[in-house]
Design goal:
Layout: E1 2-6, H1 13-24, E2 28-30, H2 31-41, H3 44-54, H4 61-72, E3 81-84, H5 90-103, E4 109-114, H6 117-125, E5 127-129, E6 136-138, H7 160-174, H8 177-183, E7 187-191, H9 196-207
Parallel strand pairs: 1-3, 1-4, 2-3, 4-7
Antiparallel strand pairs: 5-6
The protein binds BIS(adenosine)-5'-pentaphosphate and magnesium ion (MG).
Magnesium ion binds next to helix 1.
């Protein structure tokens, strides 16, 4: 299964990907996680990306495209992958298309998790992640267990200011990717409002009709 999760900040892409990859047995490839790792490691790529990310802006296409295309060319992606947060511009979608065509494979599904803007700020500001397990929590909607509390991380871009910039970028740069995949007959729209379990059921149902290719 080669698939993409698209949605606004805080839509639940990471939350759902963590659950879905367990049943599909494919790697979860989050461009945001890759960039945060590069920032933490202080690599050249991380130093380039850090300023854009902190302000809620998109990291330039030429930086992100190479990073993700290289990642999906690795051996563990031979039987599929779940992309989260990439592509989020039309040039990124075009570059992915070219790379997959070159490898003689295609995408199986693109899932759009739809959540109204009004719900996004609370989801994003209440998020906490466990760096030890990678688990994504929410102080109200998915509270962390007491033993994890001391080590939880609050993302630098999970402020009200950066969140509104991220939402603006999403509407301007990423929503044009949706009709591109709709035109290819790959798009599955899923309502992202409800509990994470309810959303997972909706995604699983939407994927049931998908025929995986090679
Ligand atoms: P990225 O890390 O991709 O951030 P994002 O797209 O803004 O999405 P989030 O990770 O914030 O949200 P999510 O949908 O994963 O939600 P989650 O499951 O955590 O990108 C960060 C930055 O990196 C970008 O701004 C950009 O600078 C750069 N970048 C990354 N990729 C790039 C690219 N391709 N091109 C250019 N730049 C790029 O859930 C959120 C919260 O809600 C959690 O607390 C969770 O517990 C809770 N929650 C989840 N589901 C539910 C539910 N159903 N009900 C209630 N709460 C829920
Ligand atoms: Mg995420």
């Amino acid at each position: 299964m080669r698939m993409i999760l698209i949605g606004p900040p805080g839509a639940g892409k990471g939350t759902q990907a963590q659950r879905l990859v367990q049943s599909f047995g494919i790697p979860h490839i989050s461009s945001g996680d890759m960039l945060r790792e590069a920032v933490a490691a202080g690599t050249l790529l991380g130093r380039t990306a850090a300023g854009f990310m902190k302000d809620g802006l998109l990291v330039p296409d030429e930086v992100v495209i190479g990073m993700v295309i290289e990642r999906i060319a690795r051996e563990d992606c031979a039987r599929g992958f779940m992309l989260d947060g990439f592509p989020r511009t039309r040039p990124q979608a075009d570059a992915l298309d070219v790379a997959l065509t070159h490898s003689g494979v295609g995408l199986d599904a693109v899932v759009l998790i739809e959540v109204p803007d009004a719900l996004i700020l609370e989801r994003v500001t209440g998020r906490r992640s466990d760096p030890q397990t990678g688990t994504i929590y929410h102080l109200r909607f998915n509270p962390p267990p007491p033993e994890a509390e001391g080590r939880l991380v609050h993302r630098a871009d999970d402020t009200a200011e950066a969140c509104s910039a991220r939402l603006e970028k999403y509407h301007r740069e990423t929503t044009p990717v949706v009709p591109f995949y709709e035109g290819k007959g790959l798009l599955k729209r899923v309502d992202g409002v409800g509990s994470p379990d309810e959303v997972l059921l909706r995604i699983s149902a939407a994927l049931q009709t998908v025929q995986t290719t090679n």
